[in-house]
């Protein structure tokens, strides 16, 4: 156990060391985020053939997608708190274990049950991204922190955008099992790089994990996200959907009551209620909603038959390739967003990002009818997402103590996940209601797609409006990322 002076000495040595190898640390963290998010899009090219591959129905096969979302949402806040208690580097290594094991199980799967188990384990690995963002605060010198956070934050979008064409190519020209073996190998490499190149991070918090709080939040989130994501299949007025949503309200209210009274809460709701943290999380939900709307719409328009009059008749591989540049745009824009945050504050960057997203959706009014138009739309929206995602952790970390960094960033990631889940449900309802008959099969109509894009535009404008109510910027860029905060209480290093 280290004293306060020991911890200060440890941190001083660590920052000095990272001055010569911070580029390697940032690269490892970014690759870790890309690989973790890549695992989420692995099965997208397989959705149509999963029932045949696994010998099940299309409805049951959808659990291969749903379980990953649920597992990630439930475990991410817990991993964030464990990172504060035991060290973020240590917990990133822990996250790599279910990621690798899940890939291996999926690679061997021949039926639904092992595939769902494997995909659930892969979802648990998503906690690696907010942990990595929080760890940057511990191991990098202040002048490197802003750009590095922006790059790490954008890795979620980069992995998703690049994963689609990569997965489509492998699925089309090789065995689908290669997708999971390749992901397992990449995850192992990432774990090894973290072990070798990322410095040990200090444990910032004291206490123990709030097991009751973890179970309560997990149960509430499962009910909420399950009800929202499966409501269209089960019927929004069905007993099971209404029961799950009602149980979610009761469980989450009970969880909030418990967290305000327990000594070592899983999430410090008093910190979360601070205006800057609360409004950033609200904006994160809306940005997540807006970001996901176009990803659901564009891929469908690209692949629908040209005979519909608005479909572009692309194969899965071609559609993925048309969408891939959007991920690269997020990588290119992240350092620009960091410089904007340093000059004007992350609040300005989040506003700019939201407005650029709205502009991208607005362009769909005139560019929706061609592949090049879709490329422009997705790239502009991704530029906005890159600005927005890079600014959120900076806003969060400038408003929370060092001892809460992991939990606060993980909770913010959860807010984005809730936004994307609600987006999938809302856009799904819109597209299912506005349809045409094509050869005896209902397909989403052009009007349905345009309505969905307008909803995404409206959500981006709401995000900008919410961000404008945030407190003004707090001095220099160093304070924006939390380095000007008073030092946290002494902690044990991991």
List the SSEs and their pairings:
Elements: H1 4-41, H2 50-54, H3 58-61, H4 63-86, H5 88-108, H6 112-124, H7 128-139, H8 142-173, H9 177-197, H10 211-234, H11 239-259, H12 269-272, H13 275-303, H14 316-344, H15 346-367, H16 371-397, H17 405-433, E1 435-438, E2 441-444, H18 446-468, H19 477-480
Antiparallel strand pairs: 1-2
Helix pairs in contact: 1-7, 1-8, 1-9, 4-5, 4-6, 4-10, 4-17, 5-6, 5-7, 5-9, 7-8, 7-17, 8-14, 8-16, 10-11, 10-17, 13-14, 13-16, 13-17, 13-18, 14-15, 14-16, 15-16, 15-18, 16-17, 17-18
How are strands sequenced across the largest beta sheet? 1-2
CATH topology of the largest domain, anyone? Growth Hormone, Chain: A
How many structural domains in the coordinates? 3
The number of distinct helices, counting runs of at least 4 residues, comes to 19
Report the order of strands and helices: HHHHHHHHHHHHHHHHHEEHH
Segments where pLDDT lies below 50 for 5+ residues?
1-20, 474-494
Number of strands: 2
For the record, what CATH class of the largest domain applies? Mainly Alpha
**Relative strand content:** under 5%
Give the assembly state of these chains: single chain
Residue-averaged pLDDT: 83
Biggest beta-sheet profile: 2 strands, antiparallel
- Helix percent band: over 70%
The rounded Rg comes to: 22 Å
Q: What CATH architecture of the largest domain do you see?
A: Up-down Bundle
Shape: globular
Cα separation of the termini: 10 Å
CATH superfamily of the largest domain: MFS general substrate transporter like domains
Structural class per helix/strand content? Answer: mainly alpha
Keywords: Membrane, Transmembrane, Transmembrane helix, Transport
Pfam families: MFS_1
Domain Major facilitator superfamily (MFS) profile: 25-474
Protein name: Membrane transport protein
């Amino acid at each position: 156990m280290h004293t306060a002076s020991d911890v200060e000495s440890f941190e001083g040595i660590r920052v000095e060391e990272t001055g010569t190898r911070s580029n390697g640390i940032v690269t490892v963290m970014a690759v870790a985020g890309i690989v973790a998010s890549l695992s989420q899009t692995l099965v997208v090219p397989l959705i149509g053939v999963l029932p045949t591959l696994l010998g099940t129905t299309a409805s049951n096969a959808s659990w291969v997608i749903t379980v990953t979302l649920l597992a990630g949402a439930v475990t991410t806040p817990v991993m964030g708190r464990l990172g504060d208690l035991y060290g973020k580097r240590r917990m990133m290594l822990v996250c790599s274990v279910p990621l690798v094991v899940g890939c291996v199980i999926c690679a061997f799967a021949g039926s639904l049950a092992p595939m769902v188990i494997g995909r659930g384990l892969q979802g648990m690995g998503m906690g690696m991204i907010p942990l990595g963002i929080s760890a940057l605060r511990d191991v990098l010198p202040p002048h490197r922190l802003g750009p590095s956070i922006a790059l790490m934050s954008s890795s979620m979008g980069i992995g998703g955008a690049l994963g689609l064409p990569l997965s489509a190519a492998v699925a089309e020209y090789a065995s689908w099992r290669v997708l999971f073996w390749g992901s397992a190998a990449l995850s192992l490499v990432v774990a090894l790089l973290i072990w070798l190149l990322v410095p040990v991070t200090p444990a910032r918090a004291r206490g123990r994990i709030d097991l009751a709080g973890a179970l309560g939040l997990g149960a509430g989130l499962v009910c909420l996200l399950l009800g929202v994501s499966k409501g269209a299949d089960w019927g929004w007025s069905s007993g099971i959907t209404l029961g799950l949503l009602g149980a979610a309200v009761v469980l989450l209210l009970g969880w909030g009551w418990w967290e305000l009274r327990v000594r070592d809460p899983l999430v410090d709701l008093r910190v979360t209620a601070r205006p800057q943290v609360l409004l950033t999380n609200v904006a994160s939900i809306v940005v997540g909603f807006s970001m996901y709307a176009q990803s659901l719409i564009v891929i469908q328009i690209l692949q629908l038959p040209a005979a519909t009059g608005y479909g572009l008749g692309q194969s899965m591989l071609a559609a993925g390739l048309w969408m891939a540049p959007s991920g690269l745009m997020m990588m290119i824009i992240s350092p620009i967003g960091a410089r904007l945050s340093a000059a004007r504050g992350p609040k300005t960057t989040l506003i700019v990002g939201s407005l650029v997203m709205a502009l991208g959706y607005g362009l769909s009014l005139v560019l929706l009818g061609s592949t090049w138009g879709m490329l422009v739309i997705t790239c502009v929206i991704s530029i906005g997402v890159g600005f927005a995602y890079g600014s959120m952790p900076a806003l969060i970390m400038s408003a929370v103590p060092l001892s809460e960094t992991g939990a606060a960033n993980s909770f913010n990631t959860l807010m984005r996940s809730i936004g994307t889940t609600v987006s999938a449900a809302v856009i799904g309802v819109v597209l299912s209601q506005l349809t045409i008959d094509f050869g005896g099969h209902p397909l989403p109509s052009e009007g349905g797609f345009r309505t969905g894009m307008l909803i995404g535009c409206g959500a981006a404008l709401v995000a900008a409006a919410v961000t404008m109510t945030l407190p003004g910027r707090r001095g220099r860029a160093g304070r924006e990322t939390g380095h000007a905060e008073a030092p946290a209480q002494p902690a044990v290093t991991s």
